[in-house]
């Protein structure tokens, strides 16, 4: 299973690298590739909720690796990931605030694993959530808050320094929306 999963992640990474090099535009290439991958993966899922989030996590990991490999902007990559996930999950009726939050957390963890800029990734996530919410008719402020909170929770799990970088990047207004950060949930509450 782990070997199959790593092959899936590697395949995604290779597709992302090709897409970025072919398009030259990181965000557009990532949105299209992630959306297609999520739709394709979703069609083959049985236990939709847990399988979907597991699949999204793998897609995020491969995408972040691909963005880093070609030296592209992680902020644009993170925005593209969130927008691609929303577009892909919309077709299955699974584009929810929880999907936004969990995707944001996966992006932050994958960004940390490649020593990427957590602040740029977090800001890109919120931008993607805002744009996606507008497209899908979701509450824009709630979507921005879900992305910010998911990013902050994941960063806080990584460590206090990571949490501080994300919190600082998300303080204030992003894409015209005042971001509301909800403090990380403490385990055991």
User: Can you count the beta strands?
Assistant: 2
Principal-axes shape call: globular
Largest sheet: 2 strands, antiparallel
Helices and strands, in order, run as HHHHHHHHEE
Structural class label:
mainly alpha
Strand order of the largest sheet: 1-2
How large is the share of residues in beta strands? under 5%
Overall tally of domains: 1
Would you identify the regions where 5 or more consecutive residues have pLDDT less than 50? none
What features would you highlight for this structure?
globular, 77% helix, two-stranded antiparallel sheet, 2 strands, mainly alpha, single chain, 8 helices, 189 residues
Structure description:
By secondary structure, the chain is mainly α. It has one domain (2-178). It is built from eight helices and two strands. It has helices at residues 2-23, 26-43, 48-69, 74-90, 97-113, 118-136, 140-158, 160-170; strands at 173-174, 177-178. Helix 3 (48-69) packs antiparallel against helix 4.
Set out the fold topology.
Layout: H1 2-23, H2 26-43, H3 48-69, H4 74-90, H5 97-113, H6 118-136, H7 140-158, H8 160-170, E1 173-174, E2 177-178
Antiparallel strand pairs: 1-2
Helix pairs in contact: 1-2, 1-3, 2-3, 2-4, 3-4, 3-5, 4-5, 4-6, 5-6, 5-7, 6-7, 6-8, 7-8
